[in-house]
Design a protein that fits this description.
Length: 166
């Protein structure tokens, strides 16, 4: 079983801004989850077989080039269900095009999925995971560029709040 992530990359200006914020977080909090990840927006993370991966390499899914992302602001996903930390992000304005790209990718990938058993407390996330192999779809998908997921403790929560800006 192989874990496969499908991502959108930011333009150079935005990439540099994200990298600078990652450096600021590292200075304040030290090593945290996702600080070493290159800037990206996750469309989905799925589990596929190595045979499916070989088959996928021969296929392609055409997606229009996205010239610009409309950023809303930095935000924090408190109590992130994946990291159990507080995840600092640049939120991307959700639009029909981004939603349709994610759904096209998920539908394209559906036949290649290895369905894992993961239980989510959130009913919609549970249904999404069962249907698509990924919990963050439709209303549960908040497109964003992750800066870092900061481990939870009182001092870090207070400092994390100061990193938010519009």
């Amino acid at each position: 079983m192989i874990k496969l992530g499908i991502f959108l990359k930011p333009n150079d200006r935005l990439k540099e801004e994200i990298i600078n914020l990652k450096k600021k977080v590292k200075t304040i909090f030290g090593i945290q989850k996702y600080l070493d990840h290159p800037p990206h927006c996750t469309l989905c993370v799925l589990h596929v077989s190595s045979l499916s991966l070989q088959s996928l390499k021969k296929k392609s899914l055409k997606v229009k080039y996205i010239k610009e992302f409309q950023l809303e602001k930095t935000d924090i996903f408190f109590n992130d269900p994946i990291t159990k930390g507080n995840t600092l992000v640049f939120k991307i304005k959700k639009n029909k095009f981004l939603r349709s790209v994610q759904l096209r990718v998920l539908k394209f990938m559906n036949q290649h999925l290895i369905k894992k058993k993961i239980n989510f407390a959130n009913l919609k996330m549970k249904k999404n995971f069962k249907k698509y192999g990924y919990p963050f779809v439709n209303i549960n998908w908040l497109p964003h560029f992750t800066i870092a997921s900061i481990s939870k403790n009182k001092r870090q929560k207070e400092q994390t709040n100061h990193l938010q800006y519009s």
